[in-house]
Amino acid sequence: MALSLFLHVLGVVVWVGGMFFAYMALRPVAASVLEPPLRLTLWAGVFGKFFPWVWASVALILLTGLHMLVKVGGMAASHYAMAMLVLGVVMMLIFAHVFFAPYTKLKRAVGEQNWKAGGAALAQIRMLIGINLSLGLLTIAVVFLGRGLV
């Protein structure tokens, strides 16, 4: 269980921490100092480096989470464990949508130097990452505050 918990938390730190950094630090600076062509090119490159880590984190979080859930009683697990599972799966689905839809559009737009389409794709990614970051922080709160409620 200790190894599963460590790997689970490691995946969460990489994913949620990366979203927090990108959304709260990189995004406002990039928006204030870079013109759209450079900003969109930067984001396409950043996501190209970050998203493989997110895929690895998603797999790690899902596998270790299910392993720990089975070890503590499966569906008889606590309500907060079930809440974590539901929130995590919603986050994973949102990420998959980001990766296969707006991120694909962003890469194509940058390659074609279509800055208007790239801006629209980036705006959609920004909104969805904001939602996922909020869900990730909520999930972390459920982990620590939920234990005190049961």
Automatic annotation (TrEMBL):
Transmembrane feature ranges: 50-70, 82-103, 123-145
| Entry annotated with the keyword Signal | no
User: Which InterPro entries does its entry note?
Assistant: Cu-R_CopD_dom
- Every copy of the Copper resistance protein D domain together lies at 45-144
- Is the Transmembrane helix keyword given for this protein? yes
Matching Pfam families, A to Z?
Answer: CopD
Q: Which UniProt keywords apply?
A: Membrane, Transmembrane, Transmembrane helix
Q: Name one GO cellular component term.
A: membrane
Q: Which domain of life is it from?
A: Bacteria
Q: What is this protein called?
A: Membrane protein
